[in-house]
C-alpha cells in the first residue's frame, strides 16, 4: 500500500486517490528570472520521480508544474537588464527546459504560465471579494486572513503569534498586517492588465491557486513543492482556494527538503550558490540524479564533491553489472520488483530503492560469474526496468564506463596508488565477498572507484583497470 507523508497532518498516511485509478498532482515550478540552481534541480527531480513511479504503479496521472512568469523579482531583474519582461522570461524558460532535458526529466502534462491565466485570476479574485474574503484598497485587492478560520493549519502557525511580529508599513492599506495582495495596482514601467479594480497585475499566491484549480479542478490529490514554499505561499494558496471554491482543495501536501553546500544552507550571500549549468560540465547529469535520489526527499541533502563521487561510483556499479549481458526482451516481476515497490511505497524512499538495485546488481554479478546466462539476462532486464522507473541506467554500459566525468577523471591517481596497493585492496574485497560482508565489499569498490580504478567481477574472478 502506498503511504505518503502529508505535510498537512504531519503524518505518513495510506494514500487514497479521489477518483479511482487517477491522480491529479500539481507542483510549484520555477520563477523564471535566472538559471535553475541545484535546489531547483532537487525539487524538479523529486516530483519527476513521484510522477514516474505513480505511472509505473498503474495510475493515470495528470501532472501540472507551473511557470511563474510575472512577479516582483522578474520585474526587478528585467529593469536591471533594461529588457522587456517577456524577453527575460522567454530566455529563462528556454534555459530551464534545456536543464530539465539534460537532467532526464519527463515533461509534465501541463506547464501553465501565470500570464496565460489573467482572466481566470481576475474571476477568482472577484469571487473572493463577493464572498467577503477580500477587499479593494486604493487599486490593490487584499485577502482578509481573519476571514478564513483555518489559516495556519498547514504551517502550524497561529495568527496571533504572526500578528505579534508584524506591522503595517507606511503607505499600505491593509486592515490587518497579515493580509496579502491578490492584485497589485499598476506602477510606472511594470506590465499591467485590465481589471474591475483598475490596471495592475496579480499577486504570486493567487497565480498558483488559479492555475492548479483551472487544470485539476477545485479538489485534487497531491500538491508538491520545496519546503521553503510551505509558508506563506502554500498556506495562502489554501486560504484562497478553499474560500473561493468551497472545497477542501488538496488532500496530500508534499515538501522536499533543502540543499546544503558543505553542511551550510545554499545561499547567494554565502557565495555557495550553484546553478545546474555550473555543475553539469563537471559531472554527468545522471550522477546528479543518483545523488539526489540517494537521500530521502523530505530531509536536507548535503551537496559535496565527495558525495557526488560516491553517487558516480554507485551508479557505475550498476552499469558494470549490466556490462556484457544482453537483457532479456521483457522483465518478469520477482522478489526484486516487490522489494523495490515496497521501498517506493514507503513515502517514495528512493534511498532504499537504490539499495535494492545494488543488491539486484550483486545477484546479477553472481549469476554471470556462475555462467547462468538465462538468469543473468532476466536479472539484467529487471535491473534496467526498475532503474528506469526513477530515471537511471538510460545509457549503454560500455559508453557510460568509457567516458568518466571531469569530477571523477580529475581524481585518477590522486592518491598515488601502486598496482600492488590496488591488488591488496582487491584481495581484501574478495575476502569480504567470501564472508558475505557486502558492506565492506561495496566500501572497497567505492574507495577504488573514487580513485579511478574500476573492478570487474567475472567467472574467472575479479579484475581491475584504471579509467
Task: Describe this structure as you would to a colleague.
With 467 residues, the chain is α/β, with parallel strands linked by helices. A 4-stranded parallel beta sheet has the order 4-3-9-10, with helices on both faces. Helix 2 crosses helix 3 (85-102) and helix 11 runs antiparallel to helix 12. Helix 7 (230-245) links the parallel strand 9 (220-226) and strand 10. The protein has helices at 38-56, 72-81, 85-102, 118-130, 159-164, 204-216, 230-245, 276-279, 285-293, 305-322, 335-345, 350-369, 373-389, 397-402, 406-409, 419-434, 438-450, and strands at residues 3-6, 11-14, 22-31, 60-68, 134-137, 140-143, 180-185, 200-202, 220-226, 250-256, 259-261, 264-265, 301-303, 453-458, 461-466. The chain starts with a strand and ends with a strand. The chain has 2 domains: 3-259, Rossmann fold, CATH 3.40.50; 283-466, Up-down Bundle (Four Helix Bundle (Hemerythrin (Met), subunit A)). It is elongated and about 80 Å long.
Q: What is this structure, in a nutshell?
A:
The protein has helices spanning 38-56, 72-81, 85-102, 118-130, 159-164, 204-216, 230-245, 276-279, 285-293, 305-322, 335-345, 350-369, 373-389, 397-402, 406-409, 419-434, 438-450, and strands spanning 3-6, 11-14, 22-31, 60-68, 134-137, 140-143, 180-185, 200-202, 220-226, 250-256, 259-261, 264-265, 301-303, 453-458, 461-466.
